[in-house]
Amino acid sequence: MGSSRRLVIVAQDQRLASVVQSHLHRAIQVTAPIVRYEDVPNLLTPETDGDLLLLASDPADASAVETVVRETKVQHLPAGLSVLETDVVRASGKLDPLNPYIAERFVWPHHPRELTAWAHRALAPGTPFADPATESVAETIRRRLINHTPSLTAMVEQLCIASAHDVTVLIEGETGTGKTFLAKLVHDCSERRANRFLVVSCGTLSGNLIASEFFGHAKGAFTSADAVKVGKFAAAGEGTILLDEIDTLGLEHQANLLRVIETGEFEPVGSNETQLCRARIVAATNWNLADAVERGTFRRDLYYRLHVLSFQLPALRYRPEDIGPLVRGMVAKYGTKYSKRLFSVCPEALRALEAFPWPGNIRQLENVVQQAVLTSAGNELKVHHLSPQVFSRTDAPTVMMPLPTGFDGTLKQTREATERANILRALEKANQSRTRAAQMLGVSRVTLYKKMRAYNLLKKDAPVTYPFDEFNQRAGNA
């Protein structure tokens, strides 16, 4: 039958893994791939429902086994989890707390028949695990988006184009919406992936230091220049350089940057030696650069050079479907970091997080989740672990209309009401431009039109109402 990615062996001990692999090949004529524990996150998606056989040959392996089990369960990933352990691991009892979360436990070499029967069941039809070594760029991008930000999967085709072509990319979105993540995704899926990915926060640099940070300086170029400094454009080599908050650059520095983009040439401060930038440039901004161009604070020619390919990231309040996957991924991340045995997030806590408008977007959400994980106890993240700010509406942005916080209907009704409210807000913010509203929402114009038709928003007299006002008022008074 050959190899099957419906069944994957995960092991630290490659010798034991090879023995188990050979046994399964003889028994069911299938070669199960062997991966390391640290590679498991690259295999899993909310769609893959194959089986992982976690090998533990030594009690020290228990920590790696627990991490995989815990992170898989807390993220609601459908992969089946079973454990094969040696006598010494079974005797240690270190894996006993995992019994409620795993399907089978085998002791090697005492349970070969039981293992064979399990393997036969594991090969049932379904979605196999990803194979990072052979999957296409589109599959890689989609896998990474769907795990944490499913609303952005509409961007897969454009992100593939950005990854395949060595052109400048502009990413626009509010602070904390994931611009760095998107830039890193483009880099990781490009031919430059083996080289450096550097982030330059333009907004943190004072005007007289920007040229030195960008281009470096020669020794003695100014009073404190005691040695030669290599700038970011040289240090990036043939990698990617992300210029974050590019809108904060003054016109003089914009002119220098334009020259680098057009010719690749620059000179370190205090030097007459012309150097070549070999890095790819990605720019990010918290503001609409087109508006900055009209105001005269951003060069039009530089804007056009940056705008070869562009992406607009909607604020998190317009992406409620992303909050669940984001929260679960963060709980998995910080649960591991702080050695917390969290296997789930209670529905009430998740509803509270989904209801909050998140003016600080993903960055604020991550801070709240990190605090909650730190204060948690037990196997479940509960609502009382959350910061009080989640239940307060005082820091909601002024442009934000109330979002759902505990609707007394079905999940389908809640989702539809949330979608309708988000579409109305986007249209309002975009001055009723469907094209711009679709960009803010991260969907195509056709999808937006279909949604508007489904929610009766195409008529001129469509009622502009926002649901859940009554509940939000109760929540605000609670």
TrEMBL record:
Pfam families (UniProt xref): AAA_lid_14, HTH_8, Sigma54_activat
Keyword Transcription regulation assigned: yes
InterPro entries reported for this sequence: AAA+_ATPase, AAA_lid_NorR, Homeodomain-like_sf, HTH_Fis, P-loop_NTPase, Sigma_54_int, Sigma_54_int_dom_ATP-bd_1, Sigma_54_int_dom_CS
Single biological process term from Gene Ontology: regulation of DNA-templated transcription
UniProtKB keywords: ATP-binding, Nucleotide-binding, Transcription, Transcription regulation
Species whose genome carries this gene: Gemmata massiliana
PANTHER family named among the record's database cross-references: TRANSCRIPTIONAL REGULATORY PROTEIN
UniProt-recorded name of the protein: Sigma-54 factor interaction domain-containing protein
GO molecular function per UniProt: ATP binding; sequence-specific DNA binding
Domain Sigma-54 factor interaction as annotated: residue spans: 145-374
